Automatic annotation (TrEMBL):
PANTHER family: GH04784P. It comes from the Bacteria. Pfam families: YhhN. This is YhhN-like protein. The chain crosses the membrane at residues 12-31, 51-74, 86-106, 112-132, 144-161, 198-219. One of its GO terms (molecular function) is hydrolase activity. It comes from Shimia marina. The keyword Membrane applies. It is found in: Membrane. Keywords: Membrane, Transmembrane, Transmembrane helix.
């Protein structure tokens, strides 16, 4: 196989794996995200991020993005199960994924180079969780605080991505998803009529956000 043929094959595999991830994410959104824990729910939820990671790896993309996606996949599996231990495992996994994304965005943007007003707004968003979220988190108060700080730091680093607008949109979609998850986990009643639409919205924002981040920063040239 010539070099040109190998490159063409890897590109085909890349797009095939991205499609697998998108289809699996759509199936999860429509058929599983609002249902109680089950083996199939976990299996389907575990597909999108590894598929995206494999797409990046097979086409010689960013190793750091692959690591962030693998950590996110661990978080997805953990959050598909019930219990505080599973939730804390997911929280730690996603916190580490955010650390990796902060590193990626920082390297690409050169630091916190976004507009000062937007950086201040992010700081206020983080502080607001002390009012509407922290009093309801119980023993998870400090893990949640640390997580809030990390995801807002990720958003601040993403504001400087002037040449990777898809990744910027993806980072803020990720933040919106986590905000909905926090509200659902700590503030919403289990029998609320909004459980299903919120579950779908947070998953679409999360999976879509990850895809946009991959599209924007996983390769030297943005996917779109």
């Amino acid at each position: 196989m010539s070099i040109v043929e190998e490159i063409a094959l890897r590109q085909s595999i890349r797009f095939g794996l991205l499609l697998v991830g998108i289809v699996a994410a759509a199936i999860y959104a429509f058929f599983f995200c609002h249902r109680p824990p089950s083996i199939w729910k976990t299996v389907v939820k575990a597909v999108p991020m590894p598929a995206f990671a494999a797409a990046v790896a097979v086409s010689f993309g960013s190793v750091a993005v692959v690591i962030a996606l693998v950590l996110s996949a661990i978080g997805d599996i953990a959050l598909s199960r019930e219990g505080e231990k599973a939730f804390l495992t997911g929280l730690v996994s996603f916190a580490l994924a955010h650390v990796v994304y902060i590193f990626i965005f920082w390297e690409l943007s050169g630091g916190f180079t976004g507009a000062t007003s937007l950086l201040v707004a992010l700081g206020l968003v983080a502080l607001s969780t002390e009012i509407w979220l922290r009093p309801f988190t119980g023993a998870l108060r400090w893990p949640v605080r640390i997580y809030v700080g990390l995801i807002c730091t990720m958003g601040a680093a993403a504001l400087g991505l002037s040449t990777a607008s898809f990744a910027l949109l993806g980072a803020f979609a990720f933040m919106a998803s986590d905000t909905l998850l926090a509200f659902q986990r700590f503030r919403m009643q289990p029998d609320s009529q909004f459980q299903r639409p919120v579950s779908m919205a947070l998953w679409v924002l999360y999976a879509g956000g990850q895809f946009l981040i991959v599209s924007g920063v996983a390769w030297s040239t943005p996917l779109f």
